[in-house]
Write a structure and sequence with these properties.
single chain, 384 residues, mainly alpha, Growth Hormone, Chain: A
Length: 384
Amino acid sequence: MLPVIIPFYNHQLGLTFQDFLFAEAFFACVVIAMEVPIGYMSDRWSRKFTLSVASLFGMIGYTAIIIADGLVGVMIAQGILGVAVACNSGTISALMYDSLLENGNLKTYQKQEGRRHGIGLYCVGIGSICGGFLYALNPYAPFYIDIATLALAMGISVLIKEPVRHRASAEIHPLKDIWDTAKYCLHGHKLLAATILIGVIIFGATKQMMWAQQPFFMLNAIDEKYFGMLMAIGFVAGGLSGQFGHMITARLSSFQVLGLMVLAMFAACWISALNIPYLSLAVLFTGAVIFGAGFPYFSELISREVEQKRRATALSAMGFLISIAFIPLSLFIGAADEYFDIRYALAGLGLWVLCGGSLGLLVWKKYYNRGNNTIRGRAQQVHR
């Protein structure tokens, strides 16, 4: 579904790219509303149950898209999918962290998280190739396959054996506990807050760059049946960076890694905006590479700074803020593409990364130099 969603909205539902991003902004609102509470539910109830609920809502959401007949129907479907994404966000990473902690293999977290992340992107790449060709046969076929795979995922989730966790006392009201965790992440731990800020800037941009690929293909008159193959290149590259990125980040300081991500993302946006034959197309996949390597890196930085009972909630805090940033970014990208074209949208996205990323790096460096961090300068001391 992913590589042909824009043509599907355009040809089957009569919606523009701006309409698509408007629906995505509503999706982000739902994620914002549900992200941290569901992360709390995952921490206090059951991680595997939360993952099962994610699959169920995913199936309902894709079914709603199939029967939608306009923007309102699509927005309802996106809202349902927003609940599914909120259930997944933070839960999978927290489950892996807890499992490695219980088994005494915590030092391999980034390597294992990167491997999981990489395999996921490989699967998305394979699915993109299949989706592009299935769309040519039947525009609804990719959605049928997505629903079937989510049903399989729900069955697998039930079979997961969770690590033993110490249940927290019920003396604290749940809403107060959520608030205390969010306040700690975004205010009480200044360096952690700066880390989350940089993550929001970077991953908000990588998501927008992924959605910008299809309008870019359309601008250059690329046949829709090749969309899946082209996007698969980016996902496979992201999978490789996720699986092997720890080998590079282990040799750099945290500040160097964060700065490199910001600069690479800015350069990718502007080179893509220039629409240089072949080069811009290749650079457009940089967002997937940065996402593949960067998300496991940020997950480890955040995970080890909070106790187990708050881990999924803390990881969800970054996803919560990414969703907030996604709303104005989506409206801007959609308007820029509607009134100009996708090149101007990419140029604006690059400025967002440069300005926001530079501010985040300055704040990060400030609190690092003050010695308030518990995130080590060499964050990735991972054994191969």
